[in-house]
Amino acid sequence: MNSLRVLLIAFAIVLLTFVVTHVVPIPGGLHDLMKRTGGQPILDQQPAFSSDETYHRLAALGEPGRTMYRRILFTTDVVFPLSVLAFLFVLARFTSRKLVPPSAVRWLLLVLPFAYFVPDMIENASIFVMLSDFPVRHEFLGKALGYLTVTKRVSLFVAILLPAGLFLLAGGKRLHRPRP
To answer: What is the C-alpha to C-alpha distance for residues 157 and 149, in angstroms, rounded to an integer?
Structure first.
């Protein structure tokens, strides 16, 4: 199968996964959680940068909301990032093969998808620990959570914008550096 077809399939899977996990009102899903908690945003939608703010928002969810949020962390909040990781990695490989950038850029392209995914999974695990132990506070996790969210988002944008920028710079031509 050619690499463009694989890239398009990976992109279609991300779009489908996004619709299923973020748009379709699945019972026990994100929309259900928001509805049951009076529209309270989950922590990775709106970062909190202090332990007090994090725990105030966790308290506002109520016990049923915290229970539902824990389930979401191991269902939709794993499935969607995995689909994004796969797409970003396929995009990085596609860009590396088509444009043949210098090895440092190629390495960066291939690492960036994981620079997005790893903080996302650490973020999920941190939220799960705080939800599971609530009302016991984990001060470090409460403070660090917003920074994990920002790191995840910046890495996601860079993992998308770097390949796009390389294609724009190449003007449709290959960035070719002779291989040793």
So the answer is: 12
Which two three-digit tokens encode residue 175? 């960035």
- In one letter, which amino acid is 117? F
Helix or strand or coil: residue 73? helix
Using an 8 Å Cβ cutoff, are 92 and 107 in contact? Answer: no
Model pLDDT for residues 28-85, shown as the tens digit of each residue: 888 888 888 888 888 988 898 999 999 999 999 999 999 999 999 989 999 999 999 9
Amino acid letter, residue 178? P
Higher per-residue pLDDT: 26 or 50: 50
* End-to-end CA, the chain: 28
What is d(CA 75, CA 167) in angstroms, rounded to the nearest whole number? 34
User: Side chain identity at 61, as an amino acid letter?
Assistant: L
- Dist CA 172 CA 156 (whole Å): 23
User: For a pLDDT cut of 90, what percent of the chain falls above it?
Assistant: 71
Two structure tokens written together for 102: 């210098």
Close Cβ partners of 10 (under 8 Å, ≥ 6 residues apart): 86, 87, 90, 91
User: Pick from 42, 52, 60: which is nearest to 123 by CA?
Assistant: 42
DSSP state, 97? Answer: H
